[in-house]
Model the fold of this input.
Amino acid sequence: MTAKPRKTTITPSFLPSASDGETRHISVVIPAHNEQGNIGPLIDEILAALEGRDMEVIVVDDGSTDATAQEVTSRASQGHVRLIQHATACGQSAAIRTGVHAAYGHIMVTLDGDGQNNPADIPRLVVDLETAPRGRWVGMVAGQRVGRQDQWIKTWSSAFANKLRAALLQDGCRDTGCGLKAFRREAYLALPFFDHQHRFLPALMLREGFEVAYRNVSHRPRQHGRSKYGTLDRLLVSLFDMAGMVWLLTRRRGTANITEKDLGKSL
Done:
């Protein structure tokens, strides 16, 4: 008998949470909107890349109108696959947030559902996160794409926005648009949430006192479908969001050096 993947329908009054005692070491969260033809092979590659690891794959179907959900369901027999659905499209940041809240893992890995991120890079990011030197609280390892496989106008606009963002936010990230990231669940849950949050995760991690490391990752051409983002509208929205991020960063007075005094055992 073929097992069915978990399927949760998200409503405004319900956000799933890993609170029933089940745990995993790694949760791979994939936000996906109309990624028929891409999502199935991507799941296969992730399972192969993390074979033997204590892991799960969570696809958050963000209001797709194609066969994205059916492709995920068809991978149920491979195990470790979960499907969560938004009734309507809520955006990439909301889909990531839903997946992280639902995750059973301690380490989160995110990557885009279009298959342009290479799952073979995942183990290296996880190792970097797990083996950070003692005394350093690395909350995230962010991928930075090399050899971009996009149209020149998209690559140019992304480079412009990244340089402007890096100058304003001083987060050391040269490619905030790379969807491939590994981070600690508790670190992510400490961050303020807003629409398009996923574009500013390194800066937000630094704001909360976590360290961020970077690793070069590969990039592949899209095989099916079209990009969900236009070039000009994405650039304009990014500039608007950046102004909000600068405001947010100025409202942080610094991270507290917190210690608890041992008062001894109560009699």
In short: Confidence is low (pLDDT under 50) at residues 9-14. The CA atoms of residues 26 and 55 lie 5 Å apart. The chain has eight helices and eight strands.
